[in-house]
């Protein structure tokens, strides 16, 4: 199949490389406001270069991948749907929840599939965890712990436009908690601090946060995030039930050092970047998109799914700022 790519920054170029290696993809058509980025993609992957998003959509593509700046996501999603072209879009759907809701309303009733990029749904460990929970291997759940720790904060300009750590980083934890447990979040309480880069505090954001999520069956989920984890990129999950307990991410590249006498785990070189930790997941995610394009599977992460994680991020942001518990119903109604 022929796939278009809109946006060739860090993640867009990574997707171009991944797509170029998939058997299902015969050719790529790419576009980026920076001509040099498109030229580089053409040279590296044999892609065709188009001079605009409209030109990509008119180039006979079977599907399109949106990896452009967040502000462009709503317009590009809607343009693809209007053209009848299945679309994969990196999260978030839009910069604000109100814009995201507008996108959802605009595409409801459309037969054109939309897949939003939450790559942890395609990581082998998280897939196995979901299967174990679904099969009842853990019994009734009581506690979930989810962790995302970045090795270093993103640049100041990125932080200022990110919407905050809950919307930018923690949202991956929120999505994967919903997906693995099959439950919805009803209430949150969030805290945060700033003990690192000054520009994060100056942007009105926190560099380290914790959130307690109450799920609709009473399960408690604890989410821990930080922009400062010098040992590496740390993504883990624990799921505890009344019958068994399991963990995702306890492997030799875990960026954590044991000080127990005689313990050598973990023995490998720590993960240092999200693309390192989730290379296989990204490949599986885009492979899934080619199956969506081919009509052999439904979207594995819909606009509705993405917005549900977004509401949790909104609630945590409000909780952090107002130092109180916040229900999901409250932010939906605001």
UniProtKB/TrEMBL annotation:
InterPro entries: Gfo/Idh/MocA-like_OxRdtase_N, GFO_IDH_MocA-like_dom, NAD(P)-bd_dom_sf. PANTHER family: BINDING ROSSMANN FOLD OXIDOREDUCTASE, PUTATIVE (AFU_ORTHOLOGUE AFUA_2G10240)-RELATED, NAD(P)-BINDING ROSSMANN-FOLD SUPERFAMILY PROTEIN-RELATED. It comes from the Bacteria. SUPFAM superfamilies: Glyceraldehyde-3-phosphate dehydrogenase-like, C-terminal domain, NAD(P)-binding Rossmann-fold domains. Residues 126-243 form the GFO/IDH/MocA-like oxidoreductase domain. Its EC number is 1.1.1.18, 1.1.1.369. It comes from Streptomyces rishiriensis. This is Myo-inositol 2-dehydrogenase/D-chiro-inositol 1-dehydrogenase. Keywords: Oxidoreductase. The keyword Hydrolase does not apply. Transmembrane segments: none annotated. The lineage of its organism: Bacteria, Bacillati, Actinomycetota, Actinomycetes, Kitasatosporales. The keyword Oxidoreductase applies. Residues 1-118 form the Gfo/Idh/MocA-like oxidoreductase N-terminal domain.
């Amino acid at each position: 199949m022929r796939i278009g790519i809109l946006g060739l920054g860090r993640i867009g170029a990574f997707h171009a490389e991944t797509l170029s290696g998939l058997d299902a993809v015969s050719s790529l058509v790419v576009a980026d406001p920076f001509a040099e980025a498109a030229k580089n993609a053409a040279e590296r992957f044999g892609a065709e270069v188009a001079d605009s998003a409209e030109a990509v959509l008119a180039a006979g593509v079977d599907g399109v991948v949106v990896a452009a700046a967040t502000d462009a996501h709503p317009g590009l999603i809607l343009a693809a749907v209007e053209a009848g072209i299945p679309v994969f879009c990196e999260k978030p759907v839009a910069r604000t929840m109100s814009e995201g809701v507008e996108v959802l309303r605009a595409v409801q009733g459309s037969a054109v599939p939309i897949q939003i990029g939450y790559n942890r749904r395609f990581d082998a460990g998280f897939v196995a965890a979901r299967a174990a929970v679904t099969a009842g291997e853990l019994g009734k759940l009581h506690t979930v712990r989810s962790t995302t720790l970045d090795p270093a904060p993103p640049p100041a300009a990125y932080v200022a436009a990110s919407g905050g750590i809950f919307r930018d980083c923690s949202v991956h934890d929120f999505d994967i908690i919903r997906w693995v447990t099959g439950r919805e979040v009803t209430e949150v309480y969030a805290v945060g601090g700033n003990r690192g880069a000054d520009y994060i505090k100056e942007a009105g954001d926190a560099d380290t946060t914790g959130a307690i999520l109450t799920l609709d069956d009473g399960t408690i989920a604890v989410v821990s995030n930080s922009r400062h984890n010098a040992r590496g990129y740390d993504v883990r999950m624990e799921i505890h039930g009344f019958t068994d307990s399991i963990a995702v991410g306890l492997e030799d590249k875990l960026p954590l050092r044991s000080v127990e006498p005689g313990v050598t785990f973990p023995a490998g070189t720590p993960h240092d970047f999200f693309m390192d930790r989730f290379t296989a997941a990204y490949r599986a995610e885009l492979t899934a998109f080619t199956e969506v394009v081919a009509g052999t599977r439904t979207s594995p992460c819909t606009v509705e799914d993405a917005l549900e994680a977004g509401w949790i991020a909104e609630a945590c942001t409000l909780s952090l700022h107002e130092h109180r518990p916040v229900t999901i119903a409250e932010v939906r109604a605001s």
